[in-house]
Amino acid sequence: MANRRLAPASEQPAAFAFSSENADWAKGQIEKYPEGRQASAVIPLLWKAQEQNGGWLPQKAIEAVADELGMPHIRVLEVATFYTMFALEPVGKFWIQLCGTVPCDSCGARGLKDYLHHRLGAPGHVSADGNFSWLEVECLGACCNAPMAQINQDYYEDLTPDLLGKLMDDLAAGRPVKIGSQVGRTSSEPLGGADTLTDATLFDGSRVGAWRKRFEQKDEENEAGKAEAASSEQRAASDPKPARPDAGRAVGTSATDAPAQRAAAGETPVKAGDKVDAADRTESTAQPNKSAPAAPETIAKAEAAGAEAGTQSALPRNEPPPQPVNSGASADAPAPASAPHPSDPKKGN
Ligand code: FES
Fold it and tell me: Which of 10, 40, 55, 233 has the greatest CB tally within 10 Å of its CB?
């Protein structure tokens, strides 16, 4: 980073005043700010003063700006010495501000600095032909295309010592130069071209058109569906068909043979393991009095069949349900008096 000092007295002009055109321009800038905030115009006024003075700010210009804005001279001097965009010493026709901050440094700014040292000498001095002067500055905000330099108002990026040398030759000779990346990349896209969002339909409008087409197609389909439904209703109204209750539906059947319904009707449920013979079942289903208690022989047979099958499901429904046996309970533990085991005839009712 270069020292920020005013130019020696020998190079300072005796006076500075804005031209009438620039004075009008400065007035317009000051009027942008509310009363009492005119100091906010200090940067544009310093910039215009530098431009008028051939690219650098003499002490008298700094003081003139301070007077214009009603600021102490020292306050405007602080601003002018803080920002490297203000040159405090005379500059060449092409003023090179070379970025030396870390991203540019990592990408080769030191090679550029060496080149400028070699070609122009120390920073802050104007070349013998008056064309160039240079200064190392902090980040100029184009790190993605590092290393870079600002020459007068323009950025030149992706520089190498060779490219910088050619650029300086062209500027000195008055040949046209390319602003921005010197290796052909567009804006700050990757070297070698963009590798994302490369689908051309994203940008030519055809993708938007495709969506629109699909929506319109859907609308047409909806309209066609509505028309078909309307014509079906009309046909049904003008040519009604005889009613067929079971047409197109599952036919409801009496599920009297379902186990749950048989049980509800007082029949003995039959399970796969039951040994109750078909005759008993037939006899049971033939009972007209469904609420009559089961005969003792039927209970005995059902218990025997349940015991053999490992279940107690053959008991008639008018018997109390069996109580669950607690797992882990002692086999000797007595059953609760309120819930006798149905297989115990002494305790059952
Ligand atoms: S570091 Fe050089 S432009 Fe940001």
Answer: 55
